[in-house]
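ASSEMBLY PREDICTION REQUEST
Request ID: AP-0331
Submitted by: J.K., bench scientist
Number of chains: two
Total residues: 733
Priority: normal
Notes: Please return the full assembly, not individual chains.
Input sequences:
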Amino acid sequence: MAELKKDETRFVIAIYVDNKFGVLTRVTSMFTRRGFNIDALTVGVTESPEYSRITLSMSGDGYARAQMLNQLRKLHNVKKVEILDEKDIIERELLLIKVSNAADQHQLIMSCVDIFKAKIIDYSTTPLGIEVTGTSDKIDAFIEMIRPVGIIESCRSGIIALSKGSGSMLDTPDLF
Amino acid sequence: MKLKGAEIVIESLIDQGVTDIFGYPGGTVLDIYDALYARSDRINHYLVAHEQHAAHAADGYARATGKVGVCLATSGPGATNLVTGIATAMLDSVPVVAITGNVGRPMVGKDSFQEVDITGITLPITKHNYFVNDIEELPEIMREAFKIAKSDRPGPVLIDIPKDVQNLTTEFKPQGPVESYDLIQPQENRIEEAIAAIEKAKRPYLYIGGGVNAAEAYGDIVKLADKIDAVIGTSLMGISCVPNDDPRYLGMVGMHGHYASTIAQDEADLIIAIGTRFSDRVTGKTTEFCKEATILHLDVDFAEISKNVSADIGVRGDLRITLPRIISGVKKLEHPKWIARVDELKAEEKEKQAKTFGVDPKDIMEVINDIKSDDTAVATDVGQHQMWAAQYLTFNKPRKFISSGGLGTMGFGMGAAEGAAVGTKAPTVLITGDGSFGMNLNEVIAASEHDLPLTVVILNNKVLGMVRQWQNLFYGKRFSNTVLEARAPDYVKLAEAFGATGVVTETVEEFREAFEKAYRSGHVTLIDCRIDKDEFVLPMIPAGKTVADMVTERGEK
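STATUS: Completed
Returned structure:
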């Protein structure tokens, strides 16, 4: 992830879009067109078959946040956009990572797996496949801890997140 | 009734009240053209010379009439030729529906002959677009496209229809023209804040743009200005939104804005920006722009508020609601000192006459003002001639100045003027330059064939005047590739070859005679109006600079 500049914060945006062909391209094309960079993006089906939900994390100053929201809201297939308040969300990210399985590193690997409640999902004599879920910070920390073992390959899912509380984001009014 | 996709396209247009479309046939729209053939008594098709002009004509038609303009082109190169026209409409928020054919669905993605992903290409330059995968969806897509194009902040919508879908049938029922989406209501507390700011201000300035056209809020602009004793300046897109003979009207602001208008904007303590987007051509250096003033921004598009210039108060809502609420809520105000100061600026402006080297472009514009009626639409291309037209032409009715502001499209003029002539059914003028005209002169043949009442004024200086002006000022007079002397065409012969009339004028008197005759003729005339290659458009605030850097005088050549 890019270093944050002064006045920049990292934030998570949730977007309900029509579950239609090409909608993801419309959303990402807007980011390119306006010169904003996305750190991570996930998309998947939701409780409603009509809509997909895009969760993306990006960084920017107050101007970027406001422009982003407003430009997204203008897209015809976007039904609802919100910046999720980091203090008030449940969020998860998934990491799959392949590390080398040298005998002298077993102790370190096992303690990382224990501490982070990770799972070994592919055990072989050479590489080891590990799954970790958690907040992005937790995954960053896991990667740092296990790095000395030797990372062969890794892949992160990008964040998914929901606001806490009883309501659905779809029912809250837009504020301009 | 059950109809083929191609028939649904044309029946839908008729159902939406469309009477005129602009297009060019080709392989994947043969079926649509066949459906058109059978319905030619109910809808007129204007065959252009090149698809780019079809898009510009639809755009010019929409700007001149307020209706949605429609263009039609085939797949591949036909579709890509529309792109500049669609982008032009997008940047100036003009409601256009562009229809393209595409190869049949089984051929899509195979790099088939004349296949191109036009929905992908036009994604960033359309308000929305559609690839019609399912015939069942076509009738609703046709309706929704018009709804999106004309609602809120208008814009172009493209519909791409594969050839096989055009040949499938489904049920079609005419339902009449679609209504726009509900008008966006401004928030009451924002209106109150706006009124408070207006009542506090001593030097209010209305800065208006093309959004006033979209909302047809012309009357309310003058009402508001009268009630709060404000003066009015416009962006390029706002020209002709206010009767130019209103004493409050100061003309265009910005890079080539009127002196009084631009200085008054800088001296104002409240800028009420209405349906406008603080283009860099208006603001110059944004950090210095009206630094001391309160910025009150009224716009239907929330993304425009604080995009280019940070607004102290933003009121997001349709001007049709926002303006009457402000007008009825605000006290009657008087600012005699401010008006006196503006009168001083107007007097100073009169004295700042730029030096000219022969036929003064201002005199040419004044001849046009003398002869044209208030109902005449004037289109322009892009460059010096455009700025002179913006500065010196006068308009007393809306939708009469048709110019590519945001994209600055050289080559816009002929198509746009053709669209305006078709839409207004009245004598129409195109003011162009020899550079811009070179990009679209093939369209003369179409205008001629349709026998449109079009007078084309080519301000011919045998150079790319605006670029030359910059080279003159900022590039040490190194006139790299801007001299067209060696290729200057004989416009009289060109006009004749295309079935039009051509005439050369070398003095203002000759021009007056030629223009009068052309304007009254009801046919296409090209006037090759010779001017000097070193005229400047003044005043000028160099790009990214401030009002303090305004150039109003011109030295020797």
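REVIEWER COMMENTS: The CA atoms of residues 102 and 126 of chain A lie 7 Å apart.
SIGN-OFF: pending second reviewer
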